[in-house]
Amino acid sequence: MYQDSSRERGYKGSVSIINSNGRIQLRFHYAGKRHYLSTGWLDTPASRKLAKLKAAEIEKDILYEQLDETLAKYKPASSLSTVTPVTPIQKPKPQLDELWDKYSEFKKPQVSPSTYAKDFSKHRNHIAKLPTRSLDEASAIRDHLLSNLTPDAAKRCLTQLKACCNWAMEEGLIDTNPFAAMKIKVPKGTSEEQDINPFNKEERNLIIRTFASDRHYRHYTNYVRFLFFTGCRPSEAVGLK
After folding, report:
1. What is the pLDDT of residues 144-157, one digit of tens each?
2. Contact, 82 vs 32, CB < 8 A?
3. Same domain for 102 and 77?
4. In DSSP terms, which residues pair with 37 in a beta bridge?
5. Distance of alpha carbon 166 from alpha carbon 106, whole angstroms
6. How far apart are CA 23 and CA 79, in angstroms?
7. What CA–CA distance (Å, rounded) separates 55 from 70?
8. Is residue 28 domain-shared with residue 73, that is, in the same domain?
9. CATH number at residue 126
10. C-alpha torsion sign, points 44, 47, 53, 59
11. For the chain, does the N or the C end have fewer beta carbons within 10 angstroms?
């Protein structure tokens, strides 16, 4: 009742079972059109038996003029078309580090050189240390930030990742922002601004003298003195030229 693709064209109303890219398709003519029914089944002996049953069902309905012309009745799980089906090629999802590099280049002309050198490089380093950069594992990324950074630093990094993915959505690089609904609460008294324990004057002078007298690290003396006497943070100082 069915025909394999190796045979010649069969009788009117017959359904051929063919191999297309390793999977089984049913092919037949009806009302002047050629139809292809993609089963999605791998071409195996067991699948061939199922295909024969499906082919017999279609042939019977053609014979009794009861064919479901939408062909939905006969679809196992695949799409039906009147042309040869083409398996879509899924574009791989970009990784978080790829998106961050593109986002950084986009933002670079819009921020000051010191902000770019300080903030964007800092978050790039955080991303480089993540156990995964897959957007499908956003929860694991958030948990890693919480485990390895202070709550305040983790919150600021997560905020930047949200901004990056929002931009990527606008650019059509991704469909959804996996960080959109995520929040990190910072307990009171744990932010960098509140967690300050400065050196006293004697400790400051001792540190500067120690650097000045060390033959390996004396070249850092002016840098350390600059930090102490200006109150500039290291992350801010490295952006200065």
Report:
1. 999 999 999 999 99
2. no
3. no
4. 26, 80
5. 13
6. 13
7. 16
8. yes
9. 1.10.150
10. negative
11. C
- Residues 76 and 122 placed together within one structural domain of the fold: no
Spatial neighbors of 130 by CB under 8 A, at least 6 apart, are: 96, 141, 144
Task: Indicate the helix (H) or strand (E) that contains 156.
Answer: helix 151-170
What is the amino acid identity at position 63?
Answer: L
Q: Which domain holds residue 131?
A: 96-195
Do residues 123 and 160 make contact, with C-beta atoms less than 8 angstroms apart? yes
To the nearest 10°, report the CA torsion of 117, 123, 125, 127. -150
Residue 157 CA to residue 127 CA, distance in Å, equals 9
Residue 207 within a domain: yes
Nearest to 160 by CA among 149, 70, 219: 149
Mean pLDDT, residues 163-178 taken together: 92
pLDDT tens across 87-112, in order?
556 668 899 999 999 999 999 999 88
Cβ pair 18, 24 in contact under 8 A: yes
CA distance linking residue 52 with residue 101, whole number of Å: 53
Q: Read off the tokens for 35.
A: 């139809």
Structural domain count, the chain: 3
Q: Has residue 59 been placed in a domain?
A: yes
Query: What distances in angstroms separate CA 37 from CA 19, 53, 83, 119, one per listed residue?
Result: 12, 14, 10, 55
Are residue 180 and residue 202 in the same domain, yes or no?
no
Question: Two tokens at 215?
Answer: 């033959």
What length is written for the chain? 241
